[in-house]
Amino acid sequence: MAVLLLFWSATAAALLGGEPDSDERYAAVIALGDGRRLHCSATKIGDDRFLTAAHCVADTSKGGLDDAFRPGRRLFLSNRVSPVPSGDLLAVTVREVRLHASYLEALRRFYRYKEDKIRDFRERYSGEDLARRIRVVERDALFTSRFPDLAILRVREPTPGIPILPVDCGPLHAGDRVEIVGYGYESLQGMALARRMRPYGRRNRGFTRVIRVDPVNFYSYAGELHSGSPSLSPGDSGGPVLRDGRVVGVNGTVYGLSRLDMARSNMSVNLNGLTGDTGLGCREFFGLPSDPGSGGRHSGE
């Protein structure tokens, strides 16, 4: 089973099998929410830019942005290790949200497909049978595994207290050691209590290795396949995957997540694969200079 790792109106609290970022090594990684609870994780990659997952900001029921992420809307963020809503949240205003063009087109196609299916269902079914079929269609949003599931959130207010992590457009390879960071659940046991204790979660990190890489995503070992490896959990969506302290991917989906607090593998967006493996599409998307001599590694500024 594949699980998208966001919560907006549900619960969210850190990485399964990770450890707290107690020395604040990754203070550029933030918790993003609505003021009461965590929505997703994100990374500051520029003065006014935060990188997160597209499914964190999109609304499949409308074929576009979630209303909460439209320009002018207010969001709350924090780079504290364990944010307290009453004092650690910084209010920001959305300036712009940018999705990758192929993801946006897929989102719109999915919306049209879904609307056609629901229209057909309404003509043929009724009552609970109709409601059940609509629920199935509404949940069927796994096109996110076939298109770059990432978004750049630009905000109006300065956030000088949050450092910037550089983006690395260089290629990944099977066996590469990477580090996953996020504010998701530390355990799937007692989730209601975790929500009350840490409504914005706690920033955790954990090392793993890449299993394989494809043009859109790469896959890393989780705890079930490799003991001690971290498994993504709800709330980790949008957080970074790092190689040598640089962002090479974005947390998106976990496979085989179980109540044993582990999964089989983690799927993350492959930044290098954006429109080709040369890194050029990555540099264009992030507005970075083209510099073949740098091996694809660039600052996020």
UniProtKB/TrEMBL annotation:
Gene3D superfamilies, A to Z: Trypsin-like serine proteases (2.40.10.10)
Taxonomic lineage from the root: Bacteria, Pseudomonadati, Pseudomonadota, Gammaproteobacteria, Chromatiales
InterPro entries the record matches: Peptidase_S1_PA, Peptidase_S1_PA_chymotrypsin, Peptidase_S1A, Trypsin_dom, TRYPSIN_HIS
GO molecular function: serine-type endopeptidase activity
Occurrences of domain Peptidase S1 (ranges): 15-255
Protein name: Peptidase S1 domain-containing protein
Coiled coil (UniProt feature): none
Lineage top rank: taxon: Bacteria
GO biological process: proteolysis
